[in-house]
Write a structure and sequence with these properties.
Layout: H1 2-17, H2 21-33, E1 41-45, H3 47-50, H4 55-58, E2 64-66, H5 74-79, H6 81-84, E3 92-96, H7 99-103, H8 108-125, E4 130-134, H9 146-161, E5 166-169, H10 196-213
Parallel strand pairs: 1-2, 1-3, 3-4, 4-5
Length: 215
């Protein structure tokens, strides 16, 4: 009985610590059938990547693949680094993390520190790979986080400016009207995630970057 209880406890603990394990396993199963080639552009991050329905069409000819998972955080991207980054040996890594982190109470300073850890691991395990941080974007649901998002984006920009092969993409300012108000018609019903119109803007920012820097 004690062994059974211990097994159940360990199983529950592992599940609790790895809330997106099922998604990661699904990607690994997909990879076992068709593994992405080395040297591609990897997109890893939270639901802004995961819910990008037109990703394949929007990145056609750009040698890219998407491994967005859950509503992940940068800490979770670090946790799955070996399986979801190093295993692919990409030439570019596009990251969208930070937004959920701020909402869960992680400070911009701590997220920036985690970004530097991610950068260091990338340099060690995938030598020569370039790293692109996609700015935390605004939303109606998280309007109160605007200042923290801007703080985080500025911190990452400062880090990237000092590191070779590091870049940022402004995914914050494009969602505002000329009068400074946040666009109202680019979100789905939850007022957080982007709708089709929102993803047109989202995709354009990334497409423009790739054409200018990563072709």
């Amino acid at each position: 009985m004690n062994k059974i209880l211990l097994f159940l406890f360990l199983s529950f603990s592992a599940f609790a610590q790895n809330r997106f394990e099922k998604e990661i396993l699904a990607y690994e199963k997909q990879d076992s059938i068709a593994m992405p080639a080395k040297g591609m552009k990897l997109f890893i991050g939270s639901s802004s990547f995961r819910l990008w329905k037109n990703f394949d069409a929007d990145t056609k000819g750009m040698n890219a693949f998407n491994r967005g998972f859950g509503g992940s955080t940068l800490k979770e991207a670090l946790y799955y680094f070996d399986r979801m980054v190093a295993s692919y040996q990409p030439s570019w890594v596009f990251m969208y993390e930070g937004d959920n982190d701020l909402t869960s109470g992680t400070s911009p300073e701590e997220i920036a520190s985690q970004f530097e850890e991610f950068s260091a691991r990338l340099a060690k395990q995938v030598p020569g790979a370039k790293l692109v941080f996609v700015y935390a974007r605004p939303s109606l649901d998280r309007a109160a986080n605007k200042a923290k998002q801007q703080d985080l984006n500025q911190r990452i920009t400062a880090i990237a400016a000092k590191k070779k092969g590091h870049f940022v993409i402004d995914m914050h300012s494009p969602f505002y009207n000329p009068d400074g108000t946040l666009m109202q018609d680019i979100f789905v019903a939850d007022r957080l995630h982007l709708n089709e119109k929102g993803y047109v803007i989202f995709a354009k920012q990334i497409q423009n970057f790739i054409r200018q820097h990563a072709q």
